[in-house]
Amino acid sequence: MIRLSNAVELADWEVELTQIRAQGSGGQNVNKVASAVHLRFDIQRSTLPPFYKERLLALSDHRVTKDGVVIIKAQSHRTFELNRQDALDRLQALILDAVKIQKRRKPTRPTRSSQRKRVDKKTQKGKTKALRGRVI
């Protein structure tokens, strides 16, 4: 059970976890032990509210396929349990980031004194560079 907020939870049946072998070089166990986790989460079939589904499907993230399936591969830890927890945490973070509403940015203008300081620095820099010229 993944808790997203007080009212929204994901049931265990909604998340499909598969054990796979981790990639990359490793020690003696790397070719024998399947400790990496492949997580699949179908957005359309889930019990998430429509707002959550819309925001997730609108994401331009490489982990979300065109069919609306979130695929996360976790293989940074040596044990299956830690990789499983890592994959679930990353899914939870992805969903929460997708639903977060960004604050509207209020366009601001630079103050008159900051504009004056910027121009003064430019003229000072220009004078310094002019003094670097060849002496006749």
Automatic annotation (TrEMBL):
UniProt keyword Nucleus, yes or no: no
Lineage: superkingdom: Bacteria
EC top class, as a word: hydrolase
Occurrences of domain Prokaryotic-type class I peptide chain release factors (ranges): 21-37
GO molecular function, one term: peptidyl-tRNA hydrolase activity
EC number: 3.1.1.29
Keywords: Hydrolase
Xref: Pfam families: RF-1
Region (Disordered): 102-136
Keyword Zinc among record annotations: no
Family: Belongs to the prokaryotic/mitochondrial release factor family.
NCBIfam families (alphabetical): PRK09256.1 (NF006718)
The protein, known as: Alternative ribosome rescue aminoacyl-tRNA hydrolase ArfB
Gene that produces this protein: arfB
